[in-house]
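INFO batch 0412 | record 1 of 1 | parsing
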Amino acid sequence: MLLKILSLNKIEYEDEVAGLNVKTSSGEITVLNGHRPLVSVLVSGTAQIMTKDNKKIPFNIRSGFLEMDDKNRLNLLVDQL
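INFO prediction complete | emitting tokens
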């Protein structure tokens, strides 16, 4: 799936990934390739980007929003720590 992380300043990250683990207002979730459409509020914490070659990239978030669309694109609008 295509992950795009946007802040007010720039595109922070954009690449094909295997998944993303992130804290939301309703708990911690993992979004994997092919996940059904979803919109959620992000809370403060460290997200883990899971690359296609099984590496984990930490990404600090203060708050924001997550949207998984029906075209297998995961978009995050974030305020970074």
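INFO post-check: The CA atoms of residues 44 and 62 lie 4 Å apart.
INFO record closed
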